[in-house]
Each structure stands twice: as structure tokens, then as C-alpha cells.
Design a protein that fits this description.
By secondary structure, the protein is α/β, with parallel strands linked by helices. The protein has a single domain, classed as Rossmann fold (3-Layer(aba) Sandwich). It has 5 helices and 6 strands. It has a 6-stranded mixed sheet, with helices on both faces. Strand 5 and strand 6 form a beta hairpin. Helix 1 runs parallel beside helix 5 and helix 3 runs antiparallel to helix 4. The longest helix has 21 residues. The chain is globular and about 50 Å long.
């Protein structure tokens, strides 16, 4: 079973897309970028772009419906991450945070609290830029996630060396 890397590409930093492309080509892994606006990808059978209709959560639904256990999803959408973790998928965000069954509840709760505080005017935030530190952390998380998935892949049931007769 080969891991496919899925990228929720609507708001994904270009540096992350570039790292995923390089990683997929180096490791010969398929990658699927899903967004509502086309962007260029290198010409390779390993790289696929899926253009979805514009609209809230359209790309998220496509990924949720098509990604499978053993795949890795890159998204900054915490609710999508929670859905995918519940289905047994590996998920990281563009800043290198790894979402797991152990931490996703806290991450979703924090997201909900911050949304409430922003909506009630108690907290204002601006998006901080994507830094070299974020890029390094993402690259490290991507490599660790792919190694973990490779190590979890089921092994062939055939005994080595032929029959034991």
C-alpha cells in the first residue's frame, strides 16, 4: 500500500506546496492537491491537481471523501483534521503541527474558544507570516509522518525464501 499525500491547497503556503512536490518526487509518492483555484504543478504522473467548486468546505469534503487510511493529509483546517483523525488518517498542518487522537480534542476546543473570542470582539488576530522556522518544522514533520506511515504499512504475508516444506 502506497501512501498518498493530500494537500488542502486553498490557503496552503507556496513554500509548503513546493516542499510536498520535492518530497513526492524524491520518494516517488503520489500527491493530490485540492483547491478551488488552479495553480501550476510540475509535469509528473505523481502529482495531481483536483479543482473543486468555490464554496465553504468543498475541498475539505473532497479530501474527507477520498483520502484513505495510510494517507497523509496536510491542512490547516482543524475541523477537517478532526474528521480525518477520527477516520484513522495521519494529519499535519503547514506549520508542522501533528494532529493525533490524543491532541485533536484540545486543538478543536481551543479553535472554538478563539473563534468565539474573535466573534465577540474580545480578541483580535492577524495572520502571522510563514517563517523559515515554520518551513523547517513542517519539513521535519512531513518526513517523520512519512516514516511512521511506512513503518505502519502491512507487510506481505508470504514467507521469505519460499515454502517451509
Amino acid at each position: 500500500m502506497t501512501t498518498t499525500i493530500w494537500v488542502d491547497a486553498d490557503a496552503c503556503p507556496v513554500a509548503v506546496r513546493d516542499l510536498v512536490v520535492k518530497t513526492c518526487l524524491r520518494r516517488t509518492l503520489p500527491s493530490i492537491f485540492v483547491a478551488n483555484k488552479r495553480f501550476p504543478l510540475p509535469d509528473s504522473p505523481l502529482l495531481t491537481f483536483v479543482e473543486v467548486e468555490a464554496g465553504a468546505d468543498v475541498a475539505d469534503r473532497y479530501i474527507s471523501d477520498n483520502a484513505r487510511v495510510g494517507d497523509l493529509v496536510i491542512t490547516q483546517d482543524i475541523l477537517l483534521a478532526g474528521d480525518l483523525i477520527g477516520k484513522g488518517l495521519a494529519v499535519i498542518d503547514p506549520r508542522g503541527e501533528t494532529f493525533t487522537p490524543d491532541n485533536i480534542g484540545t486543538v478543536v476546543s481551543t479553535r472554538n474558544l478563539m473563534t468565539h473570542l474573535r466573534e465577540t470582539g474580545q480578541y483580535e488576530t492577524g495572520s502571522r507570516g510563514y517563517t523559515d522556522k515554520d518551513k523547517r518544522k513542517f519539513a521535519d514533520s512531513l518526513d517523520r509522518a512519512l516514516v511512521r506511515l511506512r513503518n505502519q504499512a502491512p507487510r506481505s504475508q508470504e514467507p521469505e525464501g519460499g515454502s517451509s516444506l
